Amino acid sequence: MAVPSLPKSAQRMQALAARRDYAHALTPALRSDLEAKLARIVLPHLIGARIIAFYHPLKAEISPYPILAGIGADQKAAFPWFLDRDARMMFREAPAVTPSPWGVLQPSAEAEALAPDLVLVPLVAADRHGTRIGHGKGHYDRALAHLRESGTVFTIGLGWEPQIVEDPIEADSWDISLDAIATPAEWIITK
């Protein structure tokens, strides 16, 4: 897994390779079982959230869709939405049905824009203090900073167990710390 003494770009490359190798080694049945375990861990922590932001997973990312299947009828689901590659990430009401500028599914442009009070954040890597490494474009950090300017938002990083590093990751000034992290094996409060 990522070695914190390396530059963040090298940590990211190492962590992406480790995540890919781990996910590719899972059988479809085991992957489904682990994602169901993740949902059982996370769902009790979503009680009280009105609008929950999910993400459409990349191939090696753990899927939040089993969590989405378990939310309450009074809760709304949102997904990241981009007008173009240079636009700030927004959240629009689910489902994710059209390709984003990167080809990942996102809601349609006509879907209601929402301000989530809880955001499920995909990980490349994270430490137990809530510092995460993402894909390096800063989309989540900018979106979360904007949401926190306008109110309270709780963040939960989602990942496979090998994505959690024991040594602290050095945070950049723009990094938004996660409030909690969940894997199929544990719930980590970071603050």
UniProtKB/TrEMBL annotation:
The lineage of its organism: Bacteria, Pseudomonadati, Pseudomonadota, Alphaproteobacteria, Sphingomonadales. Its cofactor is Mg(2+). GO terms for molecular function: 5-formyltetrahydrofolate cyclo-ligase activity. Belongs to the 5-formyltetrahydrofolate cyclo-ligase family. Keywords: ATP-binding, Ligase, Magnesium, Metal-binding, Nucleotide-binding. It is an enzyme of class 6 (ligase). This is 5-formyltetrahydrofolate cyclo-ligase. PANTHER family: 5-FORMYLTETRAHYDROFOLATE CYCLO-LIGASE, ATPASE INHIBITOR/5-FORMYLTETRAHYDROFOLATE CYCLO-LIGASE. Its EC number is 6.3.3.2. It comes from the Bacteria. It catalyses: (6S)-5-formyl-5,6,7,8-tetrahydrofolate + ATP = (6R)-5,10-methenyltetrahydrofolate + ADP + phosphate.
